[in-house]
């Protein structure tokens, strides 16, 4: 801001204190818009020069409450303080801007528990407009949210609590040892079958002695949970068949955002998961007591007590699209990637992409990640559409976070303007391995089937299957990763069909267009479906790299939209492949279905125990594995693995029609996995021939 503007603002503040200020600025100040796109874009490019190391956010010191917000393009900023969340008129304070674009003010009292936000005026805004949106503090530690589609919020002045961590520390685990369970906090206990008293909440997730939540995850045997977004996010979307911000809602009759990939506040836990769902109503304020802070810490501590690491799925590529009162209103020109006409660039397909290469956006990202590590003891992060984060920021995340915890988990979805897992591997990040997903399962269940169905999807081949076993390394033709530690091997995630549904449709045993009324009957696996599920799981858990499964994959979870709901969904009663908006039984984990398919569930438990017990399946070197192709079928594969003093033979037959005989080396071999059991059966065979039925596999260990 130029000197005369600073002087003018000082006069406004002085006169405001004399009760004349409102009249003065209302009558005499109305900033004009930019002359043309050239003037705008010149300003847009020059914003990179602004940078500050001042503390941002709100805090209390010596009886005063301080507020600071970075908004270099703004011409005027007012702090608005509310005594109660429902107050209509706040107490307003003009803020002073420094040369680096930081606006600040100190209030002469301790405002703990009070609600606040900012009115931000830009070039072209009418200073007399008292109806400007209230913007939340980007550094707020907690927010209250009104559950409406514009998601209006107020930030809360939070007092640092003396939380009792009971000597809790980060889980220090080699990435090769990770077995990740991707899950949604609410879905793990929202269904009545979980037995949780505080269903759908942080607290419910870690309730003792129930069927669902942490108790279930412990019994499964995984060692890491990956939480779908749990930073404060937009809970509601545009009313159905109505328009907002130039977009007409023709796609979401639920008017909800359930998964959480529309982040609103990077430092604040989602109040959505600290809500009493028995009393929950829309168009009400939630999160007003900031209880979500304590609840989140309790949740992490409970997982850590059971030696389970906690990874947060975070979204730094775009911001919440359907709400007013966040970075878009604070400083659109600084925080977002814009074209020369000032329109949002949206490679994320979510309306707006954050300009992560801006110095203060990078600082915001880094400081929020560090805050979650230090304040909440989070063990790592999965970055949504990571390719939309600039490489310098990616590199600084690696450096800064590893200074705090050398084993911090950093993995991403390597999409966003292309697919580049190799670029992340070069920077010592893990990335989701879509090659193994598409090669083993296929790209779609209609005409894009993979290896478990006896097909080669795309450029898949026996050579590629071998590459997956070894971690999909760049030393192999068309491999992706410099180190196997970086390959996040998975066959199912929150996106798309579940593996169970993919198989149901691919086998043509389930018609995806058919209305399903008896979901319990539908869920029960047929013998052919179970065989394919088991073969897929066996390949996944015996491949080198990081292993990830999605919640319910272990019992062939099916996402069926309830046929009798009142929502005007034309797909009611059918299998769903994109359930981001459905806070209902489409997404909830039904533990009755785990019992129905207990055979597959136990098979997964056995494979998890196998991978946990034997280092070879996590740490064998490239040269420790020798492959043998079957002479009678291109879908027959075996390999001998020599690791330290142990020898294993792994056999696969994805041929859909014929049995295959595999020769075994001499010796007595323990069958630790076959078509019926994994890790739980003691059966010995001597060297000779081992026969696999179609669509089965086996693991044998040489008896010592």
From TrEMBL:
Gene3D superfamilies: Glycosidases, Golgi alpha-mannosidase II, Immunoglobulins. It comes from the Bacteria. Belongs to the glycosyl hydrolase 13 family. InterPro entries: GH, GH13_cat_dom, Glyco_hydro_13_N, Glyco_hydro_b, Ig-like_fold, Ig_E-set. GO terms for molecular function: hydrolase activity, hydrolyzing O-glycosyl compounds. Pfam families: CBM_48 (PF02922). The keyword DNA-binding does not apply. This is Alpha-amylase family glycosyl hydrolase. It comes from Stygiobacter electus. One of its GO terms (biological process) is carbohydrate metabolic process. Keywords: Hydrolase. Residues 182-611 form the Glycosyl hydrolase family 13 catalytic domain. The keyword Magnesium does not apply. CDD domains: E_set_Pullulanase.
